[in-house]
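Checked the freezer inventory, then went back to the computational side. Two predictions to log before the end of the day. The first one is the construct we discussed on Monday; recording sequence and tokens without edits.
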Amino acid sequence: MQSALQFSLSPYTTFMRETKVDLGNGIQLHVEIGGHQDHPTILLIMGLGAQMLYWPDFFCRSLIDQGYRIVRFDNRDIGLSSKVHNKGPRLNTLKMMSRFVIGLGNQGAPYDLYDMAEDVSLLIDKLALGKVYVLGASMGGMIAQILAARYPDKVSKLALLFTSNNQPLLPPPFPKQLFSLIDKPAATDEDGIIDHSLKLFNIIGSPGYVNQLEAMQTARKLYKRSYHPAGVLQQFLAILCTGSLLQLDKQIQQETLVIHGARDRLLPPSHGKAVAKAIPGAKFELIDGMGHDIPPHFIPYLSELLADHFKSQN
């Protein structure tokens, strides 16, 4: 176990330490930790197909500066974490999506979000984090809901960012936004992949707040770090085979803050409102102008909002 916790400087961040953690279930997660070890920990869970670097360095730094230790990681099947090689039959994604929207179940994915929540539970144990604050974004918010309900002894407070509980008959994502996330790029060389990523940033991001140069640099950095489109599809299938979290939300006892962007067209704001309504006592915060991303413009407000939530007394 000791060898799994040998830290070295991340090539991407000067203030985070990185490590590989073997969960003991066949999965290794790539993790970065920043901040003082005696400070309360915020565990960050990222969304569909998104490497942990989608938690911007500036965002992590702002939470560290407010007295928190930050843990971010690549989910299974993405980034530098373990890849799951599926030998099962090819699944009909469109048929599964149709069933999913009206609340019917699906089967056949190599894993579901309950498996991914167990990954996070095991990570908390392996890093001896104790009880943590949890912030989940998009699919990561779905995983965070499961974590809070199923492992209440490991989650002190919960914050959810542009997420959903996938209850039946919520308005579906706008097609342009959804297919930009799961479609294949027009070309598969480096420039083609980066161009595809740039289009994605612009389609799902906060209108008027996407810095094109910064987005291009981020896209290239992510591509050079890891490119694994099969993992994106498998994570999408995991969502479709998990289904509604509505009944699970009703079991969540932790103080919860749900944050959503008013300009989110991937998961429209009604998704966040549904989550806040389902979790007992949850607070809902709608941010004007924000889409399905964390641009620098909104980080000071977001980090202050989150720091206040985690600091407040129950």
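The second is the one RB wanted added to the comparison set:
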Amino acid sequence: MTIRMLALTLLTAALLCPLCLSVTVSSSKPKVEVHEHTDAVLSCEFRTEKDQNPRIEWKKKGKGVTFVYFDNKFTGSYAGRAKMEGATLTIHSVTQKDSGEYRCEVTASQDHVNLGEATVTLNVLVPPHVPSCEVPNSVFIGSALELNCKDKFSVPPATYRWYKDNKALTTTGEAPYSMDANKGTLKFKSVSKADAGMYRCESSNSVGAPKSCVTKQMKVIEYPLNTTILIAAASGLAALVLLCCVCVCVCRRQGCCRESKKAKSSKSYNPPPPPPPPTRNFKHYKQTQSFMI
């Protein structure tokens, strides 16, 4: 009888164990995708066993962790454009900067396990913007060429299509060009006269309508004959001037060497000083004169 009573007591304690007295937090939609400039609803549901007034906080994870909702008020850029219903967070007119991972935290101090959390990922979708197109005004015939198109703001990333004279370009058959729809490039190995025309690029994704850049005219011109002759003449003249400079430098160097050798030879030879002029003996001269008389 004692064993039965003990088993009944343990069963009752297990049903009413303290582990059951804990806060639980969840989200009915952990991944949210909305268009730019619309409202994003980040759901957060919680249940407590004892605490009827738990503390609710929302945080955003980025390079660091920032508060969105703290001490019963919104912080930073969320002030004035967000609201709370229970623990569910609604952000009005979201932009791409609002994309990221959010965490709902509920603290129930009277529960045995007093902290619960749920994570919601927000992805803000952005329709295509007008892409930037790089099309030269003119290009020489026979040269290689690459046209570029880029839309940096669309989410998901845009794909691209090129048009010439309002006709979509395709790479079927023996096309003299190649295209990359993901990078937005249009490449020519060797431009011909037939490639001249009006070019534009179009960006598109699954969010909104496609956008095109302004049409630009590209001319294909030949190298003028006088320009070719002028380039050849300039190259020849430059080579001649360089050769003359080298010759002058060599000649000057050899002349300097000769002068230095002469200077060295003149310094090495020191001629003896001239002998002093003969001195006359006046007494001897006088005796000679008297003898002659």
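For RB: Residues 225-268 form the longest helix (44 residues). Residues 132-221 form a domain with the Immunoglobulin-like fold (CATH 2.60.40.10). Let me know if you want it refolded.
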